[in-house]
Amino acid sequence: MSTPQVVTRFAPSPTGYLHIGGARTALFNWLYARAKGGKFLLRIEDTDRERYTPAAAQAILDGLAWLGLEWDEEPTSQFAGAERHRAVANEMLANGSAYKCFSTKEEIEEYREQAREDGHQNPFSSPWRDADPADHPDAPFVIRLRAPREGGVAIKDMVQKKVSWAASSFDDLIMLRSDGTPTYMLAVVVDDHDMGVTHVIRGDDHLINAGRQSLIYKAMGWDIPVFAHIPLIHGEDGKKLSKRHGATGVEEYAAMGYMPEAMRNYLARLGWSHGNDELFSTEQAIEWFDFNGMGKSPSRLDFKKLDNVSAHHIKIASDQALTDAVLGYMSAANIPMLSDSQIDDLKRAMPYLRERSKKLPDVLEKAAFILSQRPIEKDEKSVEILDSVSKRILNGLTTAIQDASWNHESLMQASKTFAESENLKLGELAQPIRAALSGKTVSPSVFDMMLLLGRDETIARLEESST
After folding, report:
1. Is 162 among the annotated ligand-binding positions?
2. Strands 233-234 and 299-300
3. C-alpha span between 414 and 434 (Å, rounded)
4. Overall domain count for the chain
5. Residue 453 lies in a domain
6. Closest Cα to residue 359, out of 417, 311, 324?
7. 259 inside domain
8. What residues form the membrane-spanning segments (predicted)?
9. Any domain includes 258
10. Does 345 map to a domain?
């Protein structure tokens, strides 16, 4: 008997952006599907029509696309499946695993208030659970699941292992509201079954839902998927991740200048490990990924580690990939785009821009010298450096290097000889050169800039700053 193809899914609610925790859930689903040669599906859980907008759903698709988590079929809408959800609720009504409940909100609240006074927390027990249909009134009703009252409910989980609850702790879930709309609990199960989902990978805040949902699977005689409930992401203070910890949406990380490759690497390590490997490619993550390396404790978002991962991926990226990433960052951060010639210059300079760059803005800042045109705009510190003494020195340097062979060794030697004649160290001479060539105090090596700018542009910038 052949093993069925692995099918995972990511099922976000469209709240306007892709949360970083949701992005990691999507990543784990994607990695597992790719590792097993399966399918990764996407379902938008858009049943809350008051909060739903097409723009909110598109923001999630855009976030996934930026991360490079491509899905294998057209995304589905949970709202669009409402008729199917209602049909299943009525099928359960027919097979006796569900019943009509006519209790009003006031009666339910009265029951709960009495329970609090009596000191117990038993779930609501509907008087209609075993009522004769002949006694049903002509009144609005909900359809409830007939949950077991005795014994236990247990699930197997690839992360949490075996988890069980007393059956008495579960209430009879409402599956269809009195207005005929299906509830989330029913819709999720029906959708996962109909989509052929074999593995439900999600945050461990849904663990109790797995127990409840398993009852619906059993009531319908459907195979229960394999569950994997992963630990949540907390802030650096160990508390649940929120806006106070910094960026929570994927689009914010794109606008801050992190590469998608770096985000995939970093997010994969939040809760999952492969030995002591910290830095790895997406291909390696796919090859290694399984749930044996998944921990049970919440992971902590650490921006220092993220920056280190980001620096690694900037360092190893090809010039073309890094150029594309910088252009993507500029778009995400609403920075005016470059001309074709500027893009060519950016790519040409890439070998000198990536060193010691932690994020894409660092790369772009270092590239300012080659993207700028004369007159070079100078920052405040560069203006301070280019005082009358520095201008005199630059004037002398211009004469010293203008006839030099235009290669790294010759330029360095000519500059070193000139510095010695001025009783300066080469590092002291580099400060005004950097200010003149780039207008900034942070840039690639001054000799790398000279080579990239060429003789004529270098001399022109030095002359401009020495007058």
Report:
1. no
2. parallel
3. 16
4. 2
5. yes
6. 311
7. no
8. none
9. no
10. no
Three-state DSSP state, 385: helix
* Alpha carbon distance 457, 459 (integer Å): 6
**Residue 246, both tokens:** 């910094």
* Residue 359 near residue 257, CB atoms below 8 Å: yes
What is d(CA 175, CA 91) in angstroms, rounded to the nearest whole number?
A: 12
Which of the residues are catalytic?
243
The token pair that represents 149 in the structure block: 């009252």
Domain of 451 in residue numbering reads as 380-465
H helical segments located in 119-183: none
Examine the fold and report which residue of 125, 154, 185 is the final residue of a domain before the chain moves on. 185
Task: Return the amino acid letter for 251.
Answer: E
Among residues 185, 219, 235, the one where a domain terminates is 185
For position 129, which CATH number holds? 3.90.800.10
CATH number of 442's domain: 1.10.10.350
Measured between alpha carbons, how far is 366 from 346 in angstroms, rounded to an integer?
10
- Greatest CA span in the chain, whole angstroms? 109
Distance between CA atoms of residues 111 and 126, nearest Å: 9
Angle at 18 between CA 15 and CA 19, to 5 degrees: 95
Provide the whole-model pTM: 0.91
Q: How far apart are CA 415 and CA 331, in angstroms?
A: 39
pLDDT in tens, the chain (467 residues): 567 899 999 999 987 789 999 999 999 999 999 999 999 999 999 988 777 888 889 999 999 999 999 999 999 999 999 999 999 999 999 999 999 999 999 999 998 888 888 877 778 989 999 999 999 999 999 999 999 999 999 999 999 999 999 998 899 999 999 999 999 999 999 999 999 999 999 999 999 999 999 999 999 999 999 999 999 999 887 887 766 666 678 999 999 999 999 999 999 999 999 999 999 999 999 999 999 999 999 999 999 999 999 999 999 999 999 999 999 999 999 999 999 999 999 999 999 999 999 999 999 999 999 999 999 999 999 999 999 999 999 999 999 999 999 999 999 999 999 999 999 999 899 999 999 999 998 899 999 999 999 999 999 999 999 98
**Which amino acid belongs to residue 46?**
D
